[in-house]
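Q: Please design a sequence for this.
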């Protein structure tokens, strides 16, 4: 399970940032990522951070200024500095401003772990952090989601950490795993719940309309633009915009989205005047964004802006212990809707549901239970489940062998009948021993 500490990582070197996150994730710490001091300040503004890990040498504003800022604005927050260009002056300056340790690149995972534990221990000793502790997550559910598995609890813990801040979140997972439910849980369980939640499926809107729908347009901006119109981003002001299937967004849309995330403002199509926005962006994808980046169809810098916090929603096959809970939930939902009463399920039917791999994940499970409730008379049995869920016999496909394979197979049969006597086998086959040896190679 995740540890209680939140760690903010700041470095303009993406490789180092990914390395730090990978190491700390393996140690069960929860991390936030920032590629600049400006982005780090946005995260610090409304997020409970227990430790800052920052580089010193960065463009525009260096990490030393961030250390100084945190020393005054968050005096009880420990600070760990990493740099590839060590100097006595830098070391004395960061220590002077409260850094608990100073790591030189490259460093080992063990060195990082020791430094992080030392920094967090210094915070623990002070016991003066004023933000309230994270509320424990319910053991079997979060918002409209349900589960008891460790995989589910990890997702619920991250939701609990980000629900009250505006950090950009990237939700990754296979189709049907409940990515939109995660986004809604983040929004509706936090302090922005009364503000708008705008869900946009980037894959369902035609490419030529997506840009206008997201950012709005002015009268005359293009053919058919007969009036000024706000987009989804303006509609989500003060709240949350959920961008589903973000991997389908075109490059022009990605360019505009990057500006929104960097500058916290949006410009309508046909306008030169930017409008300030206060909006949390949650994006979701079932695509492999790394592959899209390699193909140059998705911007790498946008990926890092979107993935300040990443939530990996596990497929149902990795949380099979949650299947009985989900089945109960769907039976209650559809039993009341279709039968006006609760529906039960036979043990053997439940075992089939638990055994199946669910390539369509929770959405597929819900569809199967919904159909079974409609077909049953109060109790779901095996007959109410689709055949593809039930046990199958995999018959080997009958294929043709090559002439050489058939010849060798026949020679082996003859040798078997002669108890391995090659001279006798050669006589039966009508060939000499030398030819027989060649054919057996």
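A: Design:
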């Amino acid at each position: 399970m995740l540890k209680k500490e939140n760690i903010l990582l700041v470095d303009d070197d993406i490789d180092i940032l990914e390395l730090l996150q990978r190491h700390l994730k393996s140690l069960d710490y929860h991390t936030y990522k920032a590629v600049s001091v400006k982005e780090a300040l946005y995260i610090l503004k409304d997020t409970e951070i227990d430790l800052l890990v920052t580089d010193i040498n960065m463009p525009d504003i260096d990490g030393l200024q961030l250390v100084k800022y945190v020393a005054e604005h968050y005096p009880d927050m420990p600070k760990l500095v990493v740099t590839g260009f060590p100097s006595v002056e830098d070391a004395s300056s960061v220590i002077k401003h409260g850094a608990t340790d100073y790591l030189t690149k490259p460093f080992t995972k063990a060195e990082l772990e020791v430094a992080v534990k030392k920094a967090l221990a210094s915070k623990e000793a002070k016991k003066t952090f004023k933000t309230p502790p994270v509320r424990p997550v319910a053991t079997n559910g979060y918002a409209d989601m349900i589960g008891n598995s460790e995989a589910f609890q990890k997702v619920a813990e991250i939701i609990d950490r980000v629900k009250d801040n505006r950090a950009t979140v990237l939700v990754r997972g296979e189709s049907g795993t409940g990515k939109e439910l995660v986004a809604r849980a983040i929004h509706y369980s936090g302090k922005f719940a009364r503000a708008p939640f705008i869900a946009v499926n980037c894959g369902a809107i035609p490419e030529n309309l997506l840009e206008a729908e997201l950012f709005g347009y002015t009268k005359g901006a293009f053919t058919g633009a007969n009036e000024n119109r706000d987009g989804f981003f303006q509609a989500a002001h003060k709240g949350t915009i959920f961008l589903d299937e973000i991997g389908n967004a075109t490059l022009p849309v990605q360019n505009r989205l990057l500006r929104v995330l960097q500058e916290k403002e949006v410009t309508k199509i046909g306008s030169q005047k930017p409008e300030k926005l206060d909006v949390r962006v949650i994006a979701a994808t079932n695509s492999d964004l790394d592959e899209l980046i390699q193909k140059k169809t998705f911007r790498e810098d946008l990926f890092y802006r979107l993935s300040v916090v990443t939530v990996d929603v596990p497929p149902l096959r990795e949380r099979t212990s949650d299947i009985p809970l989900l089945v109960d939930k769907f039976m209650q939902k559809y039993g009341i809707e279709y039968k006006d009463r609760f529906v039960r399920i036979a043990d053997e039917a439940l075992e089939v549901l638990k055994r199946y791999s669910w390539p369509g994940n929770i959405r597929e499970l819900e569809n199967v239970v919904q159909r079974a409730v409609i077909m049953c008379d109060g109790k779901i049995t095996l007959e109410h489940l689709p055949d593809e869920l039930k046990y199958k016999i995999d018959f080997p496909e009958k294929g043709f062998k090559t002439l050489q394979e058939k010849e060798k197979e026949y020679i082996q049969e003859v040798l078997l009948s002669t108890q391995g006597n090659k001279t006798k086998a050669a006589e039966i086959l009508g060939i000499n021993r030398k030819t027989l040896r060649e054919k057996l190679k």
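Q: Thanks. Anything notable?
A: Residues 12 and 58 are 6 Å apart (CA to CA). The first strand starts at residue 6 and ends at 10.
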